[in-house]
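DM from R.C. (forwarded with permission)

"hey, sorry to bug you on a friday — could you get me a structure for this? deadline for the figure draft is monday and I only need the backbone to look sensible"
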Amino acid sequence: MSYSEQQLLSGFNNQNVMNDKEKAMDDLLDFEGKVALVTGGSRGLGRQMSLALAKRGADVVVTSRKADACEEVASEIEALGRRSLAYGCHVAKWDEVDGLVETAYAKFGKVDILINNAGMSPLYPKLTDVSEDLFDKVIGVNLKGPFRLMASVGERMAAGSGGSIINISSTASLNPSPNSEPYGAAKSGLNALTRSFAFEYGPSVRVNCIVAGPFLTDISKAWDMPAFEANARQNLALKRGGNPDEIVGAALYFAGPGSTFTTGTTIRVDGGTR
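My reply, with the result:
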């Protein structure tokens, strides 16, 4: 074989290796035939994760308290050629959660991926201004609702072909700060549930958690941005807030086959928050 022929053959082999690697990577991000249920899916991080899964083949149940907003995202998903279900649900109300689960299984027959993304973190001037009703709402949305969803969907996943549960937590669960006490406590509880549910429904169901930092979603429009940017420059390694689509990589990792030996753990997607 001549030198030129050897070079040509080597080029073909290298191309085949590259193609194999690309296919392997594609397989890790292929959600064809999967069904995802995303709470808080009508805006912000939830919308980004819903669309990302749909773009990679998943059918998606989009739920939040505002059914009309869910319909808008569901229409975007259907425009991608996937099936979607828009469902208005207040996750702190277990009767509504049970209705959501029943409707999702009635339409799709299964849920492979559950993302507990719904959350609320209201502002208050001082701790004594936190009413019992407000405290209960924060705990209800951030902890009580995810518990019920994980129990209901996780049990069905374990009895079927398994699945992945992803909880969206917050740096407030790790670095408590003034003005986020009930929220931080609730998210800390969610971190604990992640670990315990991983043992409860393993090995066929994986349960993991993304600890999110400050993301520039529509909620951030109410922030004092000059103050936030000054704080970010001092306390975030990346010195900025996150773009909503920057949550997607971690979510797809936990949702897909690339994380089959990962459960009961957390990943911080927080820009390097101190």
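R.C.: lifesaver. The domain at 34-214+243-269 is CATH 3.40.50.720 (Rossmann fold).
me: no worries. The helical segments are 3-28, 44-55, 67-79, 94-108, 132-159, 181-201, 225-235, 248-255.
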